[in-house]
Specification:
Elements lengths: L3 H17 L1 H13 L8 H13 L3 E6 L3 E7 L4 E7 L26 H15 L7 E7 L12 H7 L8 E12 L3 E3 L2 E2 L3 E10 L3 E2 L9 H18 L7 E10 L5 E2 L2 E10 L2 H20 L3 E8 L5 E2 L1 H15 L4 E3 L9 H5 L4 E9 L17 H20 L2
Parallel strand pairs: 3-4, 3-5, 5-16, 6-15
Antiparallel strand pairs: 1-2, 2-4, 6-16, 7-14, 8-12, 8-13, 9-11, 10-12
The structure holds zinc ion (2 copies).
Length: about 400
């Protein structure tokens, strides 16, 4: 076992080694950035990462979870996985950067280009190290959207065996509001679990002049909306995060006809399984108001991504690496939100953690998914070094 001072020294050396490959990291990131591909269409991207990883001597599997790539460095157990998502967004880039997207209407506005560069960088750094066991790199398709069956890249890769033999899994996500040079870590829930719901409120149509002869589904829907909006404030324990939002509302065709039905869709967010179950029950109860008033309803739920729940030991390992590489004041607490991230699917099965990588240096802050989002490429060396050093420490401590 190394003493604290030796870990600190190793961390500083790893960061220096990562900074020495900065040009390569930027070149990879810019290449991905200029040629972005949407979810489950990452064929060029996947071929590129697979080729690079083969060049590093990895055993590479292509077509995992449709367009994903799995690459193993080293042999056997213990095994820690490093995950990087590969998909871009349907967005027209406005940064004006020399390396801006060359694909009209498609942009790496969520920083997945940087995630891949950091993972490739970690692989390159690890080819120069001795370690027990293996590191598995998961280049994941389609984090942002599901396929025709509503299933995104992480569960698709899991179904294809990407986690077999994996003891722990780590990932990072760039963060626009956090300065380059800092990371954020968290123990426990760090993102929201998400389910969608699709409903219809059913009344009885009729002439707009004779509402007493119809059963107005708009009137029913108005009561349902009230009940839906009271769920979080009146029914959920205040220390349990939860969201219920309506995303669409459609009914009727013209001004003087009361329609039969109103269609409504929405989302729900949670971090605890019990809250997820309660939200499902309460949303149904809210729609029961339509029955109480003489109408009816139909609803179906589509189960989505589970919450990311960061494992205490893996999270503390990443935080310790961060403190050694970047100094304690640059390891910040995670900014909790109920946005969804399908990395939670991996962490449902294997202990893991996601850390946030600060990317901002100067100028106004443009958030992720903004057509002006860009990042300070100095963050790439930090991401690569934290990945590599965390993997080394995990493998050496668990051999
Ligand atoms: Zn995104
Ligand atoms: Zn993302």
């Amino acid at each position: 076992m190394l003493c604290g001072e030796s870990w600190l020294l190793k961390g500083i050396i790893m960061l220096a080694k990562a900074k020495a490959i900065q040009d390569q990291l930027s070149a990879w990131r810019r290449d991905f950035h200029m040629q972005p591909e949407l979810g489950f269409q990452e064929t060029r991207t996947a071929a590129k990462v697979a080729g690079i990883m083969e060049g590093f001597g990895c055993r590479v599997r292509r077509g995992v979870g449709r367009t994903g790539v799995v690459a193993d460095l080293g042999n056997g157990s213990p095994c820690i996985a490093v995950r990087a998502d590969m998909d871009a967004l349907p967005l027209q880039e406005l940064t004006g950067a020399a390396y801006a997207s060359q694909v009209p209407g498609v942009m790496h506005a969520c920083g997945h280009d940087a995630h891949m560069a950091c993972a490739l960088g970690a692989a390159l750094l690890l080819t120069r190290e001795q370690f027990p066991g293996s590191v598995r790199f998961l280049f994941q398709p389609s984090e942002e959207v599901g396929d025709s069956e509503g299933i995104s890249g992480a569960p698709r890769m899991i179904a294809d065996g990407a986690l077999e033999g994996v003891d722990a899994v780590i990932a990072l996500h760039v963060e626009a509001v956090t300065p380059c040079g800092a990371i954020r870590t968290e123990v426990g829930p760090a993102s929201g679990g998400v389910d969608s719901w699709f409903a219809e409120v059913i009344g009885r149509g009729g002439h707009g002049a004779y509402p007493h002869e119809a059963l107005d589904p708009f009137f029913l829907t108005a009561q349902v909306i009230n009940a839906l909006n009271a769920i979080v404030s009146r029914r959920i324990y205040p220390f349990h995060p939860a969201v219920v939002s309506i995303g669409s509302l459609h009914g009727g065709h013209t001004e003087n006809v009361i329609p039969d039905r109103v269609k409504m869709t929405g989302t729900l967010r949670y971090t605890e399984k019990a809250v997820q179950e309660q939200l499902h029950a309460e949303i149904r109860r809210a729609f029961e108001v339509a029955r109480t008033l003489g109408g009816d309803y139909e609803i179906k739920f589509e189960l989505g991504t589970p919450p990311m729940v960061n494992h205490p030991e893996i999270s503390e390992l990443v935080a310790a690496v961060g403190r050694d590489l970047l100094r304690a004041e640059n390891v910040l607490p995670w900014r909790k939100e109920l946005g969804a991230e399908d990395f939670g699917c991996f962490m449902d099965l294997v202990p893991g953690t996601m850390f946030a990588l600060g990317t901002h240096s100067t100028g106004p802050v443009f958030g992720l998914h903004n057509p002006n989002y860009d990042l300070d490429e100095d963050c790439l060396a930090i991401g690569a070094a934290v990945f590599a050093e965390t993997a080394l420490r995990f493998l050496r401590q668990n051999m």
